[in-house]
Write a structure and sequence with these properties.
- The chain is mostly helical.
- It is built from seven helices and no strands.
């Protein structure tokens, strides 16, 4: 990856975060924010958190693939997704009840609220597999579910209401969707490959 591709990618992610933050603030969903705060949150989340998680995933992928066969690494990522789903389903209520900010579980059944990211991540992974081949499904699901969840934890821990935490999750999900879908084209020698 050369500098031109890198800065093109950073610019796209900032644009996605800023536009998503602005639109969500104007719609008042999932949190009511003044439009300029939506822009600030979107820009900050997309660059500081979204790109950081993406580079962490790339580094983890590079390191693990240097000593594990690809098939084993894909299988291991699938197991981590299963562990993450079970972990979230079991420990989520305990985590929320122990937060110092006073955040409480949403009323009603919270399992659809927890499993919705898994379904959305599977949809993105399906499209990634169509772009890059069937071996890309599990790594894409791993990135979309596990890494987006890990990136979201600081917002969840510091949130006093579900609206702002949900806003950050939506922005992270949109940024991570773009990053995972464009991942196969980042290494291309032509800078235009990212914008295609």
């Amino acid at each position: 990856m050369n500098q031109r591709i890198f800065w093109h990618l950073v610019g796209r992610i900032i644009a996605i975060g800023v536009v998503a933050g602005l639109l969500l603030a104007l719609l008042g969903w999932p949190a009511k924010l003044v439009w300029y705060r939506g822009v600030i949150v979107g820009g900050f989340v997309s660059v500081a958190i979204g790109l950081m998680g993406f580079w962490a995933y790339l580094m983890l992928n590079f390191l693990v693939r240097s000593f594990l066969p690809l098939r084993v690494w894909i299988w291991f990522q699938g197991m981590l997704v299963v562990v993450a789903v079970l972990d979230v389903a079991y420990y989520f209520p305990q985590l929320i009840s122990s937060l110092p900010t006073g955040l409480t579980l949403p009323p009603g059944n919270y399992l659809p609220f927890i499993l919705a990211p898994l379904v959305l991540g599977a949809v993105v992974a399906f499209f990634k597999a169509r772009l890059s081949g069937k071996n890309a499904f599990v790594p894409a699901l791993f990135f979309m579910y596990v890494f987006t969840g890990v990136e979201w934890v600081p917002a969840l821990i510091n949130a006093k209401e579900w609206g702002p935490a949900g806003l950050i999750w939506v922005i992270l999900f949109l940024c991570n969707t773009y990053l995972i879908l464009v991942l196969g084209r980042i290494g291309s020698r032509q800078p235009a490959a990212i914008s295609a």
